[in-house]
UniProtKB/TrEMBL annotation:
The gene is aroQ. Its EC number is 4.2.1.10. Keywords: Amino-acid biosynthesis, Aromatic amino acid biosynthesis, Lyase. Belongs to the type-II 3-dehydroquinase family. The keyword Lyase applies. The active site is at 22 (proton acceptor), 99 (proton donor). It is an enzyme of class 4 (lyase). This is 3-dehydroquinate dehydratase. The record marks 17 as: Transition state stabilizer. GO terms for molecular function: 3-dehydroquinate dehydratase activity. It comes from the Bacteria.
């Protein structure tokens, strides 16, 4: 099984960025842990972070036919990007949306997601553990 982990804008700053909200682990730590965990589950995980919306869109397009499912933390694009929504609708790639923080307990502009209603699942407010939970959930869903 092949899974793609996508992280959007500012998630390259994980560990340095607002650690009271996003924690002290870096994205490199998260990706390393998740790659190892995926391989224990007979899964191959590829990882991409970008601050550019079009890079994420291209990655989703390229994943069509070669990747079984996607885990995405779209960062602030969650709340603005019709294009990401359309990319998932257009490719029909199953995906799980992850947010480190509980976006529903934050500013009201973070309550709206353009992706949630078309996601297989959503994991919110569980910190970096959310990525592992998403991987477990996606593997289960793809097996059935
Ligand atoms: C985030 C929440 C978003 O509102 C924010 O813009 C981010 C990170 C999260 O993981 O909690 O960049 O997606």
């Amino acid at each position: 099984m092949k899974i793609l982990l996508l992280n959007g804008p500012n998630l390259n700053l994980l560990g340095k960025r607002e650690p009271d909200i996003y924690g002290s682990e870096t994205l490199a730590d998260v990706e390393k842990y998740l790659r190892e965990y995926a391989s224990q589950c007979d899964c191959e995980l590829s990882c991409l972070q970008s601050n550019a919306e079009h890079v994420l869109l291209d990655a989703i397009h390229q994943a069509m036919g070669s990747i079984d499912g996607v885990i995405i933390n779209p960062g602030a694009l969650t709340h603005t990007s019709v294009a990401l929504r359309d990319a998932f609708l257009g490719t029909k790639l199953p995906f799980i949306e992850v947010h480190l923080s509980n976006v529903h307990a934050r500013e009201s502009f973070r309550h709206k997601s353009f992706l949630s209603d078309v996601a297989e699942g959503i994991i919110v407010g569980c910190g970096t553990l959310g990525y592992k939970l998403a991987l477990d959930a996606l593997i289960q869903k793809l097996k059935h």
